[in-house]
Design brief:
Elements: E1 3-4, H1 8-18, H2 28-34, H3 39-51, H4 55-68, H5 73-85, H6 89-101, H7 109-121, H8 125-137, E2 151-152, E3 160-161, H9 163-166, H10 169-177, H11 179-187, E4 197-198, E5 204-206, E6 209-216, E7 219-220, H12 222-225, H13 229-235, H14 239-242, E8 248-254, E9 258-263, E10 270-278, E11 283-287, E12 290-292, E13 299-302, E14 308-312, E15 318-326, H15 332-337
Antiparallel strand pairs: 1-2, 3-13, 4-6, 5-9, 6-7, 6-8, 8-15, 9-14, 10-13, 10-15, 11-12, 11-14
Helix pairs in contact: 3-4, 4-5, 5-6, 5-7, 6-7, 7-8
């Protein structure tokens, strides 16, 4: 299986980002003091804390490394990732701007990704694409638009897909045939049920964007499926959905005035389907350099490892069903070997 993790630090970063545990950082201060001048030890301690999602402790350790060696690339990559994850994008810009302007020749995709994301969050999109272009020139990225943390080689790469190309013609026909039933089950919950929860990945620039997950990692979320029995019954018949441990199925409810930051999904191992359920004017999605609108009862398919963003300038709520499927070029062996993308704690939410 040709999985390309583009640097040593990104491999560790992927482990930290998706597979947390509950280990305490109680010994951090003592250990750091004991081995304070050993940079190799401090790097290892910092990565260990990141894997445990003890980000504040890891930040202290990596900032200590930077104080001893301002050009330590492991610490720079780690800090940029931590700052972005904690939403302190100004710190990422402070950390990286001068280093890039002074001509530092970084070869770590984590640094380029973090800097580009921070620039986007600062409204400096053109500068962000310049950073991504430099990463492409260095062979760290395949495209300025496709920037997943995990890149699996030898898969077709295109932003938008047809049902035929994706190998889900039967599934799409069934979804579009029963779209009103799928819509009505969700509408019956809105305003009378607290099942819809705000998205938790800090992707909302402004507005109100909620979701209701009904399948996660190929398994039905039983307490939510009891509220949407027809939809779950329909979807449970399709192997594309029940045999994908990296996939979710969820309703997505977006209120007028909402905008989602441009972002890339974590891996090119899957595709994403959107079924339009309640689509007012003014709701649009951009994937790579192409913008489209949803239609009620129709499906859009795209590769969410490409940069995409959503905005809703309409006057009433937009409702869609989101379904993930394996990329059609993923082999059965890869499906077995690849690990889930989301933390365990998110599976039942």
């Amino acid at each position: 299986m040709a999985v390309v993790i583009l640097s040593y630090s990104i491999a560790l970063f992927v482990v930290w980002r998706w597979y947390p545990s509950n280990t305490s950082e109680s010994s951090t201060d003592h250990s750091a003091q004991t081995h304070g001048n050993d940079l190799d030890y401090l790097r290892g301690l910092g990565w260990h804390l990141m894997k445990q999602r003890e980000l504040d402790g890891a930040k202290i350790v990596f900032e200590e490394i930077i104080s001893k060696d301002a050009n330590d690339r492991t610490a720079i990559a780690a800090l940029a990732s931590i700052y972005n994850t904690q939403g302190t994008f100004d710190k990422t810009l402070q950390l990286l701007t001068e280093r890039f302007e002074s001509g530092n020749d970084f070869d770590d995709i984590v640094i380029y990704r973090a800097f580009g994301e921070a620039l986007i969050r600062d409204g400096r999109t053109i500068e962000a694409y310049d950073i991504h272009s430099r990463a492409v020139e260095k062979g760290l990225l395949k495209s300025v638009y496709q920037r997943p943390m995990e890149y699996i080689d030898n898969l077709r790469t295109q932003p938008w897909w047809t049902a035929s190309d994706a190998g889900v013609t039967d599934l799409v026909k069934e979804l579009e045939k029963h779209w009103m039933t799928i819509r009505d089950e969700a509408l019956n919950l809105i305003n009378v049920d607290v099942s819809f929860s705000a998205e938790k990945e800090d992707l909302t620039k402004h507005g109100n964007w909620k979701q209701l997950i009904i399948f996660n990692e190929g398994r039905a979320i039983q307490h939510n499926c009891k509220k949407t029995p027809s939809t779950c019954g329909l979807l449970s018949k399709y192997h594309e959905l029940t045999n994908c441990k990296r996939c979710q199925v969820k309703y997505s409810l977006m209120q007028p005035g909402t905008q989602v930051w441009p972002h890339c999904g974590p891996s090119n191992s899957k595709l994403r389907l959107h079924l339009g359920l309640q689509i007012p004017d003014g709701a649009k999605i951009r994937v790579a350099d192409t913008t489209r609108s949803w239609e009620e009862g129709k499906t859009l398919i795209f590769d969410d490892s490409f940069e995409h963003e959503v905005w809703h300038d309409g006057e009433s709520a937009r409702l869609i069903l989101i379904l993930d499927i394996w990329h059609p070029d993923i082999t059965e062996e890869q499906k077995t070997q690849l690990l889930p993308l989301r933390p365990t704690r998110d599976r039942n939410h």
